[in-house]
Amino acid sequence: MSLAIEVKNLNFSYDSEEGVQTIKNVSFSIEKGQYVSLIGHNGSGKSTLAKLLAYLLEPASGEIYVDGIRVNEKNIREIRQTIGVVFQNPDNQFIGSTVEGDIAFGLENRAVPREKMIELVKKYSRLVGMDKFLNKSPDELSGGQKQRVAIAGILALGLKIIIFDEATSMLDPEGVEDIKKLIFEMKKEDPELTFVSITHDIEEAYLSDKVIILNSGEKYMEGVPEDVFADEDKIKSIGLDIPFVLQVKNALKKKGIETPKNIRTIEELSNYLCGK
Ligand SMILES: Nc1ncnc2c1ncn2[C@@H]1O[C@H](COP(=O)(O)OP(=O)(O)O)[C@@H](O)[C@H]1O
Ligand SMILES: [Mg+2]
């Protein structure tokens, strides 16, 4: 299986934090087409790691490979044709003077022909529910609407690897679900599309292909969700919780009712228990 992202012994410090290492000897790999959740407390280094992957920050040491290419200052352009990050704060990302201009910005930068660009702006503004707002300026939009625009701007680029760094934090639960569905649709169309979700949503993490946990700048755990969350004590010892469905499964187990390891949702669990 070829890798979308490979990180080896990555280290990083912000200059302003003398003596403090923000990313400590972190190594992990992500296969092409995987949906990966990156979780951990605030300040654990998740956003810093996302910035390092897209070379928005320069590693102190270690290696990063994106789609097989070693990331360094010489191939930033190539890397940014492959990987894109949507960050939490949409104000720092809104570049255009209108929604339309903002979604078009990345496409213009990549010299996408005008006709194609108009088509893509239409398509992705519609998919994120912002097609009625194309001529609005950022100050006419809510935080959640700006997040939708930022998401459209990245999705329109047709990148192979997309990272959402708490990119839907200002949306209501329904909006979050809509965007998740959109990502799953895109992944269905392109099984090689790799998606990394930096999230506090443990339930989402449990549905991922892989979970990576950062703690104080170090990789704490990495693996399939069933294995990672199986070690309840290890998860709870850093103040994280285990998914609700797993809590139910564990409670059933205590009563002598075993359920299959691969059940990941309440719906699957109730179907199983009802013998469907
Ligand atoms: N621009 C910056 N300058 C200095 N320190 C920073 C900067 N950004 C983040 N940090 C520090 O780096 C650590 C990791 O932050 P961050 O990567 O934002 O974590 P997370 O995204 O997991 O909340 C924190 O201690 C934070 O205060
Ligand atoms: Mg962050």
How many β-strand runs? 10
Q: What's the quaternary structure here?
A: single chain
Give the SSE order as H and E letters. Answer: EEEHEEHEHHHEHEHEEHHHH
Q: Main beta sheet: strand number and arrangement?
A: 6 strands, mixed
- The level of helicity is 25-40%
Write the CATH fold name of the domain at 1-81 and 198-240: Rossmann fold
Task: From the alpha carbons, calculate the radius of gyration and give it in angstroms.
Answer: 20 Å
Quick check: average pLDDT?
95
Number of helices: 11
Give the CATH class of the domain at 1-81 and 198-240: Alpha Beta
Task: Determine the N-to-C terminus distance.
Answer: 34 Å
- Small molecules in complex: adenosine-5'-diphosphate, magnesium ion
Q: Any guess at the CATH architecture of the domain at 1-81 and 198-240? A: 3-Layer(aba) Sandwich
> At the fourth CATH level, what is the homologous superfamily of the domain at 1-81 and 198-240?
P-loop containing nucleotide triphosphate hydrolases
Low-confidence stretches are none
Strand order of the largest sheet: 6-7-8-3-9-10
